[in-house]
Every structure is written in structure tokens, then in C-alpha cells.
Design goal:
Elements (H helix, E strand, L loop, with lengths): L11 E5 L11 E7 L3 E11 L5 E9 L7
Antiparallel strand pairs: 1-2, 2-3, 3-4
């Protein structure tokens, strides 16, 4: 991920990730701050359904900040 990226509330930038021989790794990853809910890691995969149609799969994972907000 870019060191210059500063998450803005309710916006997410995803950066292409190197698979490095592990096809289970996400194609893109980033962070998002959801107002009222906190910071999340975002992972995105390009997939195909059983009919060969392309779709995107997104997973958000809550980040523990260690802060007592």
C-alpha cells in the first residue's frame, strides 16, 4: 500500500497487490475509515462465477487501533 495514502472518511483506495505465488491473496488491498464505525482493512478479488461471468468480491476487516475513543 502507498505510504502517502491517508484514508478520508467513507472513501477507500485499493492498490494492486503482488500474488507472489499465493493465488489466495487479494488482487487489491487498502484501508477505509467508515464514519461512526472505525477503520477497516479492505481486500478485493476479481472472480468468475460458474457461467464465466466476472464479478468483484470485497471483504472488510475491522482494524484494532489500540485507542480508547
Amino acid at each position: 500500500m502507498s505510504d502517502q495514502f491517508v484514508p478520508q472518511p467513507n472513501h477507500c483506495l485499493l492498490f494492486r497487490q503482488a500474488k507472489e505465488g499465493n493465488e489466495k491473496r487479494p488482487d487489491y488491498a487498502g484501508e477505509i475509515e467508515v464514519q461512526g464505525s472505525g477503520h477497516f482493512s479492505a481486500a478485493l478479488w476479481g472472480r468468475k462465477d460458474k457461467n464465466g461471468k466476472t464479478y468483484l468480491s470485497l471483504r472488510l476487516t475491522k482494524k484494532e487501533t489500540g485507542r480508547s475513543d
